[in-house]
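Support request from a user on the community tier.

User writes: "When I paste my structure tokens into the form, the page sometimes reloads and wipes my input. The last time it worked, I copied everything first. Here is what I submitted, just in case something in the input itself triggers the reload:"
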């Protein structure tokens, strides 16, 4: 499923988070798929349980996975959680630009420059 490279400059929790996002995006992890428990996945990947817990928290905050209490953690049923998160971020950006009275052209230029950076 997902491999963690201990020699990478990318922290293990981020490698795991990115791996889950990629697997969901490609369909390797389908909506409703039950994910391993934190302890089980930590053991399988050879990382600390806190590493998996942090990745799961960030994935849940992004809407990519959902925890159903004692029933476990599952891939969200959202059609495209990454796109939904991007839409929320864009809405926040637009709201901030309006509050700062930045016109649409300038706001889009700022966003394009930030994406190129």
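"...and here is what came back when it finally went through:"
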């Amino acid at each position: 499923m997902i491999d963690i490279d201990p020699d990478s400059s990318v922290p293990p929790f981020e490698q795991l988070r990115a791996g889950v996002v990629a697997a969901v995006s490609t369909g390797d992890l389908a909506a409703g798929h039950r994910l391993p428990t934190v302890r089980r996945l930590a053991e399988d990947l050879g990382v600390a349980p806190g590493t998996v817990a942090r990745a799961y928290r960030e994935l849940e905050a992004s809407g990519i996975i959902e925890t159903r209490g004692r029933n476990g953690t599952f891939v969200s049923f959202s059609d495209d959680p990454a796109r939904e998160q991007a839409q929320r971020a864009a809405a926040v950006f637009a709201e901030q630009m309006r509050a700062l009275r930045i016109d649409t052209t300038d706001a889009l230029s700022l966003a394009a420059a930030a994406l190129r950076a």
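Agent notes: The reload is a front-end session timeout and is unrelated to the input. The chain is about 60% helix and 5% strand. The first helix runs from residue 12 to 26. Escalated to web team.
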